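URGENT: need a sanity check before tomorrow's submission.

F., can you look over the Phosphoglycerate mutase family protein record below? I want to be sure the sequence and structure line up before it goes out.
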Amino acid sequence: MNSSSSTDSNNGKQIQHIVVMRHGDRIDNVEPLWISTAKRPFDPPLAEPGKVRAFCTGRKLRNNLDFPIHRIFVSPFRRCIQTASEVISGLCAVNDDPLEMTSDNIEIDPSKVKVSIEFGLCEILNREAMGLDTAPGNWGFDVSELESLLPAGTVDNSVVPVYKEMPQWEESVTEGRTRYLQVVRALADKFPSENLLFVTHGEAIGAVISSLMKDTTVYGVEYCAYTQPKRRVSFKSNGTFTAGNFEIVALLDQFGVSFCPTSQLSL
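Structure tokens as predicted:
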């Protein structure tokens, strides 16, 4: 697997890129009656438009990024797993037919990317975010079953997750946003020579952007919206590394994120 395309070979320095993405369109926002018969109403899958959006976003990343994605980490919620599956097909398509809008008839090269499930990327676990009065007695995430929904040959289940189980219920928004930042940083540090894609939830994008851009509040994150931080990583001969701070590298409104100066909110 190739390392980042942005490498200074003479001094052991390279740029590590990460992409933090929201999942695609969830079925309960397209079909309101879905929830009335759902066995797991807190875990809606993608609607068909969400699959199309996710696949096309993967294709867009493949065509427009000037660096490869090496590794993907994904929230265990089904809408995120399905989004990751479609994005992987868009990223890794072999002889991609531009008329295809989902992964159904797409052949991929599974050697191009590896994917792992990370509980720490899950939705913020509180009543407002989840629409639940209490947490389920058992979230019921079967990792093996979820991995089977991802493209064959891409799953790397040898990666030790940052969160080995779901976070505690009724965390605050601040606690959830802090969790997202912790997980993104920990996994970036675990794989410093690779570019990473995180498929997660809208609050994660807001957390990342607000932490990296002073006086910035995110007030809207579209389905499959994303942000692209990067940092410089320097590798030493003894195998250790040092890393600079992440910074946002592109205009956010190109990628479905709406934001404004925090100072304007009090006017």
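My own read: Confidence is low (pLDDT under 50) at residues 1-5. The first strand starts at residue 7 and ends at 8. If you see anything odd, call me.
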